[in-house]
């Protein structure tokens, strides 16, 4: 325990420069980001998907105004993902996924109902 405590690492580390550069280059090459927009500051490292969803909901609220923002989520979904709207006090619109027949392994499969999603967007 002492050895771990002396390491000084108590949480998530920042991405090293090579990783940040690789992300920036991919955004320019694959998604057409302008070189000037693909700065180090434009790459945000998050400790996980849940914090990322919370940031995304906040971004929607900033763009559309807190009272006018709704967040569409396709359900069923991993329950903790639903907390992002509750955490940010945002209106959530659930769009049910279409259930397909069971797979060979007996697992349920789902498809996005694009028409239903477009209606809410």
Blueprint of the fold:
Layout: H1 2-6, H2 17-31, H3 49-64, E1 70-75, H4 79-87, E2 91-96, E3 98-99, E4 110-111, H5 114-120
Parallel strand pairs: 1-2
Antiparallel strand pairs: 3-4
Cofactor: pyridoxal 5'-phosphate
InterPro entries: Class-II_PLP-Dep_Aminotrans, PyrdxlP-dep_Trfase, PyrdxlP-dep_Trfase_major, PyrdxlP-dep_Trfase_small
Keywords: Pyridoxal phosphate
3D structure, described in words:
Helices cover about 45% and strands about 15% of the residues. By secondary structure, the protein is of the alpha+beta class. The longest helix has 16 residues, at about 50-65. The chain starts with a helix and ends with a helix. Helix 3 (about 50-65) runs parallel beside helix 4 (about 80-85).
Quickly count the domains: 2
Give the DSSP E fraction (strand runs of 2 or more residues).
5-15%
Q: In what order do the strands lie side by side in the largest sheet? A: 1-2
- SSE sequence, one letter per element: HHHEHEEEH
Q: Span between N and C termini?
A: 51 Å
* Major sheet summary line: 2 strands, parallel
Indicate the low-confidence ranges by residue numbers.
none
Principal-axes geometry comes out as extended
Tally the beta strands: 4
């Amino acid at each position: 325990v002492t050895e771990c405590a002396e390491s000084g690492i108590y949480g998530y580390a920042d991405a090293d420069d090579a990783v940040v550069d690789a992300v920036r280059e991919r955004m320019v090459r694959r998604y057409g980001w302008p070189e000037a927009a693909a700065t180090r500051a434009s790459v945000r490292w998050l400790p996980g998907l849940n914090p990322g969803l919370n940031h995304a909901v906040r971004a929607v609220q900033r763009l559309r105004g807190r009272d006018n923002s709704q967040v569409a989520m396709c359900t069923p979904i991993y329950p903790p993902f639903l907390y992002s709207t509750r955490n940010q006090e945002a209106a959530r619109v659930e769009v049910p996924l279409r259930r397909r027949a069971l797979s060979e392994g007996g697992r349920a499969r789902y498809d996005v109902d694009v028409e239903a999603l477009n209606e809410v967007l």
